[in-house]
Amino acid sequence: MTAGPSQNKLYARASALTRRIGMPVVVLLAAFAFDLAFITDAAFDDAGPKVIDLLLFPGIFGMVFCALWAQKRAAVAAVAASVVLVAYTLVVRYFNIPTYSSVLANLSITEVVAGVEILFYAARRTRPGVAFAVISGLVLATLTAVSGRYMDGMSGGTMAQAMLFGGILLGGTLVFAIPGRDRMTNPRSYEKLQKLNKLVLGQWPLIGMLSVALILEFTFTYASGAHGLPILVCSIVAAIIAIAAPRRPADAMIALTAVMLLSALVTPFLRLRYDYPTPGGVPGTQVVAGMGAIVTLVRAVGLGKATSRLAALTGVVMGACVLNTQRPNPRLMTNPDDIAGFAIAGLLLLGISVAVGLALRSRDSERTQVIQSAISDAQTSERMALARELHDVVAHHVTGIVVQAQAAKMMGEKNPQVAVEAMGRIEDAGVEALAAMRRLVRSMRGDAPAGSSEFSEQATTDLAADLRSLIERSNHGVKTSMKLELPSDVPHEVGRSALRLVQESLTNIGKHASGAKEALVIAEVAGSELHLQVTDDGREPDRRPAGGSGGYGLIGMRERVALLHGRLSAGRAPGGGWRVEAWLPLEGEE
Question: Is Manganese found in the keyword set (predicted)?
Fold first, then answer.
């Protein structure tokens, strides 16, 4: 039951490590690990002199150092790599050290990978003239190593293959390197390159397996001469399709099926022998590419929608197995036992690929649900914050307008001067309400922080001064006195919430405290808490409050207090009137 999370955690750590040290370094280290195991094993086998193969490592170490150096000094590292290749070719010739071919004849896989990375950095980061010079030198040094390390003289076919593969590496590297030389003058090309980099980072496990398989096929191609070249080309195309499959999984599966069908039909005419192995009639690279494409397709569309394409690919593999398993004399495989054995192996690989695809699809679904839940929670929190600000700020001013309008209506006939003064206060409150609404609109449009207002936009470093300003400017129609004993270092979030609690309490006095003559605001520090108390001497209203009651005032206050892990008490006071008390911790909880 715990295997899934452990694997996910391991994959996440591997991905984080890859991003931290960089994909080029990971590939270089993987190539070096391969050469380390392969050459060490060859050094102690029964073929040829013992231990002499280990003399290849100084040259390999030199190329690894140049590749790492190229990340900072590409031009100098390219020159150094050229010197290392030529110098160590002389060492190989002098000591008769046996060499091993990978993508290029007589060069180890580490030397090839290091050379490609040096070529990439030189083309990407150096001036055009310098890049041309150092790349030309590196190409000449590589040709010297390919031809000079062959003891008995290279055949024309082997040299032609080395030229072809080297040209592919050179052209492919330049195609990837040149678009990223200048980000400003060619932003579209750079954007495409960034998408490609993202795709490569997402497919790095598959790329690693395909790279190993392709290296082996390059070796098989050298051993078989020109006969295996068409199969190698099909394998390279299959690998590219599998890597690019996440962009269009269904179309990629169709294209891969067509390439594997072409490879299966061509193979009988190439007269390949056992020096170019095709397990089950399908080259190893195409097997890995097929499994990767199946995983991508099932992960993207599910098993139900992928069934038809999986059936087509399975049919092609079965045909390739029947056609190309019996070699070196190609004939159809008709033995039922052999067919059953290959069918079981094929179904096992298919089942593994489908299972991995379904597991990744399930993980993607869970991740999507988590993200959607987080987005929904953030949206809800933002809506609640805006609702609280709308209720606390705008409703406060509007309540003052209604109270002053009622007073002007009652006293206007008896004392017109009172009505005129009330109209002035109504105008001021309307201007403040309009300003508050504009600030909320800016917040919703992203022009101001969510929940900002005339008080929260201020620093609120002096809570006592802000409370005095709030009480003096309030228009709730009740005389309010205050008792403030506050330090100057009240935390910002605590001060802002305290300001809102007092503001909402005064608004409720204007709306609900029928016959109230006086209100009292107390704000003081008691121990490690800020104590707030707002009381009035009114009585329970016998009519609908001014402007109606939305019922959200106490809800908003409780939400603010809960966010700070405080306590809130609101209700009728023992001696009459209404009392609101809050205790807000001045220090956050650990």
Answer: no
